[in-house]
Request: fold
Amino acid sequence: MTNNSERSRGMASLQEIRARFPAMERRVEGQSVAYFDGPGGTQVPQTVVEAVADYLIHHNANAHWAFPTSEETDLVIAQARAALADFLNATPSEIAFGANMTTLTFHLARALGRGLGPGDEVVVTELDHHANVAPWQALVVERGVTLRTVAVRPESGELDWADLTSKLNRRTKVLAIGAASNALGTINDVAAATRLAHDVGATVFVDAVHYAPHRLVDVRAWDCDYLACSAYKFYGPHVGVLFGKHELLQSLDLPKLEPAPNSSPERLETGTQNHEGIAGAAAAVDFLASLADGPTRRARLQTVFDALHEAGSDLIGELWRDLSAIPGIRLFGPGPAVARTPTISFAVPGVPAREVCRQLAGKGLFASHGNFYAQTVVERLGQSRDGLVRIGCACYTEPREIQRLIVAVRELCG
Ligand SMILES: Cc1ncc(COP(=O)(O)O)c(C=O)c1O
Reply:
């Protein structure tokens, strides 16, 4: 990521960032662990751990009662909505929390489905994680809607935009699209997709789980109607976050307990929330914002994400170049010249991805394998049986970790 000279430009150095993460101290065979599993879940800084512990030690209570710990809990949640609103460029009343993106998406899809029936169409994509497919697919059985699936172009890992355009029509009620592919690192032009969908009167739901750790989400610029992400992918605990335009959240017809609050965003939240996780999610946003100087939290986040993107692009450029020079390696997804996240997937023909990852782990290189629930695109790449090896760079990834990885993959192939 950034080197030490960055500090003078108002951005923390890579060494400073790494020092914030206790997990960086872990060793395997005397070597520090390189965590390339960020797309599955990042490590957390000390301040996030402290925020979770602080909530449980000092403020633990249920919400909405007239005694201090309960009032403090209300405040923790309100502050977290404000932090996540800054993170997504929304307002606090547009931020709901839940167990994870998958659960929130099933809940939202079921609610939106109440207004749908035979003749209505929902559009999903082959590139998406199935958490942005299955909840919509359920409406085929539950509501009799028709599901249309936009094709991916396996050779580039990009969506087929002509196919997307052709699948949208006046019957389309929802477009469910990922902002970035957790399997390949592809970034989709969400603003353009939203315009196309709105032109035919459809509602747009965005899965920003893989995008949110790498580029600063802007729900206003995208004009999407709903968006979900997960704090555990951007240095927080295991909590899901749902954005919805205020007027939509307010009027959504959804299953809820009659005595539970009916104002938005609380009406989206089922049961008692994970308060300590919510406190940690806010601390994750504040951790990111603390890495740069700037007049507002949003401005600091923008500086940080620009710097992270630049550093990630350098790492991915090096990784792509050196991995593609290893005979036999198959790389997937868009090349480094295209706008993408710093996540690369590859395969070593004849060696199952699980075995590759097991061998890398022995050298302190932790990488994930499989289809990452982006099952359809992995099928389309012909890797259903052996899976992919996925290397994800995060804010704490060092160039020398990339070098260690390349040496290890070379040895494995040699
Ligand atoms: C792109 C993408 N969407 C959705 C999910 C599901 O998120 P959650 O675990 O919060 O349900 C993931 C998790 O890996 C993901 O990477």
